[in-house]
Amino acid sequence: MLFNSYIFILIFLPLALLLWHGANHFGKYKLAQVFMIGMSLWFYGYFNPSYILIILASILGNYLISMGIERFRSQKLLGILGIVFNLSLLFYFKYYDFFVENVNNVFHLNWALKNIVLPLGISFFTFQQISFIADRMMGKAEHYKLVDYMLFVTYFPQLIAGPIVSHRDLVPQFKDERRRHFSYENTLMGIRLFMIGLGKKVLIADELGKVADSGFSSIASLDSVSALVVMLAYTFQIFFDFSGYSDMALGLGYMMNLELPQNFDSPYKSNSVKEFWKRWHITLNAFLTQYVYIPLGGGRVGKAKKIRNTMIVFLLSGIWHGANWTFILWGALHGAVVSLENLTFVEKIRMRLGKKVSWIFTFAFLNLAFVLFRSNSISEASRFYGQLFSFTNNGYLWSLPAAMAGFKNYPLYLITNHFGGYDASRVMYFIWMLGVFLLAAFLCTQRSSLNFVKEKKATAWEMWGFALVLCLCILSFSDISTFLYFNF
């Protein structure tokens, strides 16, 4: 189920809040959790009910392993078994066909592909359970009651596209009876966060996504100028799409008096790629740091091993995002640049260049790397780079804005087309595209959504603005797209 859909906004969310707060109001705390587990499974299995069996099998397997760790002394062996179980499940559904395809190419074999449909959010709920099993193995986590553990894994706001939530962040909140009481302040903050995220997704990410999709589907027609615009469109699209989901997830949590971890903190303000990863997908970075980088020795080892550890972390980050060599190369490039930035002489160069120049280099690298992230293959990315650096201008830029045609600008199209014809409508679409770009760029310079709602009190004008955003978004739901990170 999508946050940005009629059924979620008009039926699912009101019912979920009613069941949660209603049961809690009468002191039926466990019943409230059972209600929420049931609602979360409905949310998860809405598109494909078979997904429910997969997540339940994953939960049951991990819970039995945790129970074994509780009852027997072989914590390390059972912990390793649990991690292998999770990775095997992830490998089968996400990487099996990729592995077989590459084996076939290297050894000239003809093994059959299974064409497995990737279950939604499997990377997210698998990593959450790996963190739990790893902590159980090291004696850093207790064995929870089944209802607590099931809600920790299935809790619908973060289930499909994060943030990646640790059991330490969520389970203690389920046990805190103070959080079972309705909070007007948190509910208002949750509504504001949800509306900001919805606006990011529907009014910015989806609009710029039309430009990005149009450009990547007609790479041969692009010139340098239009390729640059398409590249920027995707860079903004993926941020507002993913951060929009994360804002909505945090907002939903606050509506239930629960706090999820922040996943984005104005990442495009970063003056280095290293800083970018402290601001972008924060929970994934925290997971890989705690469970991979630090156990490998982190930065306490020699320079060579530190580079090795950094590259391993970023290669895993790339692979986590998808079964494609483009993601692996994307992760490797980020790892290589971060490794360079960790060198003393590079840091001195950055200091001499100043923050503005460092920001320009960082943002340029992020854009170029995102081309790999967006492309279906390395050859497709190469063709895009070829057009980007062809230093040509064939006027294709004027064809891109037409992809943004929709109900939101249709009245403007009718007016401009009536008075100025085709040429006037082309100019109108170009101005519309430019306006969305400027809005996206402006918002990227502002504080994070979470900091905004915490630091600034709600005003009547703001709430009326959110009401307008909601109306525009609901009218757009018939032409809505899924979230990009549903694919990961």
Describe it:
The protein is mostly helical and 488 residues long. It has 20 helices and no strands. Helix 9 crosses helix 18 and helix 9 runs antiparallel to helix 19. The longest helix has 35 residues. The chain is globular.
Strand content: under 5%
Distance between the termini: 16 Å
List the uncertain runs.
none
Gross morphology: globular
Derived structural class = mainly alpha
Estimate the helix proportion, in percent: over 70%
Task: Average the pLDDT over all residues and give the rounded result.
Answer: 91
Distinct helical segment count: 20
The number of strands is 0
Give the oligomeric state of the chains in this entry, treating copies of one chain as homo and distinct chains as hetero. Answer: single chain
Main β-sheet description? none
Please trace the helix and strand order, writing H or E for each element: HHHHHHHHHHHHHHHHHHHH
Radius of gyration: 24 Å
